[in-house]
Amino acid sequence: MGAMRRTTAAAGSALFFALAPGVVAGLVPWLLTGWRAAAPLSTWWPLRLAGAVLVIAGAAVLVHAFARFVTEGLGTPAPVAPTSHLVIGGLYRYVRNPMYLAVTATILGQALLLWRPVLLAYAAIVAGAFVAFVLGYEQPTLRQQFGPSYDAYRRAVRAWWPRLHAWNPEHDERT
Question: Please, what's the b/e burial string for 26-62 (b: 16 or more CB within 10 A of its CB; e: otherwise)?
Answer without folding.
Answer: bebbeebbeeeeeeeeeeeeeebeebeebbeebbebb
